[in-house]
What does this fold into?
Amino acid sequence: MVIDNCSQLDLFNNRNVFLYPILQDARVHPVAASILGFVLVDVDTKQTFSLSVAHPEAIFQYADKSLSFLNSCTVYSYDTQVLSYCGYSVDGFLDAELQYYLSFNQPYSFENPPIVQHYNRAYPNCNLIGGLIGLQKHEQIALELFEKAFVQQKQVGLDFYQHQLVPAFFGIEKNGLQIDVALFEQRFGQTNARVADKCYTHYNFFTITGRPSNRFGGVNFAALNKEDQTRECFISRFGEDGCLVEIDFNAYHPRLIASLIGYDFGSSSAYEQLAKQYLNKTNPSSSDVKLIKEATFRQIYGGIQQQFLSIPFFFAANELSEELWRVFTRQGYIESILSGRRLYSRNHVDIDRNTLFNYFIQMHETEMNVLVLNKIHKELSQLKSVPILYTYDSILFDVHKEDQQYLVEQVLPSCIDYHKFPVKIKSGSVYKDLMVC
It folds into this structure.
């Protein structure tokens, strides 16, 4: 049913509603997205309604971005991030994608319907695909999505993921990375990641552990090559008055595990301390430290071997791994310490103890970083400088020269416990050539 006047909006009083945005072109980055309208599915009756914002088929166009007619409803919104990018108020909405993800520990695999695929192939350079498809067809698409992917019961961990995790990554995405356009196109060609003189990342946290991938428009921002010229095109938006500053967490996974088991590495090198204990050397060489670093990764990701259990850190880490496995097999899930999110055994039937431990640590890593990122967003809110890229154990900032000293000496130490999680700080005018400060 197409809504064609304001009085029909009263139909939604006190309903449970699944809200699906109709995008002008789903291929563009959310920062450049346009919403042509909405499909609303009554959760209880499965009746569908379409409300146009700018769809060419409709006469009545709804312009209120507060969506105030839904104030009395329980709203499950799909593609909530796009709504935020487009300026819509999503306060009080339940994120339908997160609901599914938290229930099944995986994203709903939504493929473009055949009609959308047809238009994308027929008109590859057209950015008006959403308007070519009729509102009735959009209602069918939304209803099919609702029937396959809707989860009504509020999931454990939703509050943290929707109100902490999503804003943390949205706060980076929306800033974009300033680029040298010629160098960027030379390296990446024509891509939807580029909008004018910036390119935009897109964090996909609908992964098994919540650890986000970061790929958009064919550009894998989580794995930009350090050895060739790939990073040369990323520069400061402030020109000669700016620079890029990157922080790298040292031995991040061992230190995250240490924080969970009550082990204190202090401010010195974690790998050097482990090398001293394992090799029984007062002054281990750099090759010794490299060797123990590689061995540590094997223990963390592949299971702790017997000869390492004499080292207190590895012994306690093994105890944590065994306890997580006992809880997982006994009650059917383990919970995140920070968000309460659950990893259910029903969703991981072939998992073993070592894999579960890795999942737990990566989940904890992501959620710890979310807390840090939100502190940073708050501290930088009145400054010109902005975070522009997150890659697990590092954060890249675009910094105005007026802010650099304050960022390094005040903001970062107030947001990160340097005793537990020491960092290395690098800076430079081009992402490729960052040097340790």
Observations:
- The first helix runs from residue 80 to 85.
